[in-house]
Design a protein that fits this description.
Helix content is 41%, strand content 3%. It is an all-alpha fold. Helix 2 crosses helix 4.
Length: 135
């Protein structure tokens, strides 16, 4: 986890995003409006990591790197009141259900021949090389 793991984000399931897009395409209610799509709730990255850790039921260690990405903001979540009023959008997939679906999907994926390398080290090196993260 970057920083201290307490930074927060708005996690929304892809099926809710696609539902919001469909509502926007099928209705004139949002014409000319700028609307946020999200869950409307802020959740810490640490909370997500702990939930994933529990759902995978495998011994793992949570790593808080203390590193940060330049330009990243500490907290971010969507105000979804406009899309709710204009299009009747309300997210349907809870955070817990979304994580459960994600974990199920991950477990169904084949493991690459070079092992379960997730590319984190490579991604972090690239961020550092591009001046987007401090070493």
């Amino acid at each position: 986890m970057f920083e201290d793991g307490q930074e927060s984000r708005d996690f929304v399931h892809v099926s809710d995003v696609s539902e919001a897009m469909a509502l926007g395409l099928e209705s004139d209610g949002g014409d000319g409006l700028t609307m946020n799509v999200g869950s409307g709730e802020q959740v810490s990255v640490h909370t997500i990591a702990r939930s994933l850790q529990r759902q995978f039921t495998e011994a793992s260690t949570l790593v808080v790197s203390g590193q940060y990405r330049l330009g990243d903001i500490r907290h971010n979540f969507a105000d979804i009141s406009a899309i709710g009023q204009a299009l009747g959008f309300s997210p349907r997939v809870s955070l817990e259900e979304g994580i459960a679906r994600f974990v199920h999907w991950v477990k169904m994926q084949p493991i690459a021949e070079d092992g379960p390398e997730d590319g984190l080290d490579r991604a972090n090196r690239e961020l550092i090389e591009r001046g987007l993260m401090k070493a």
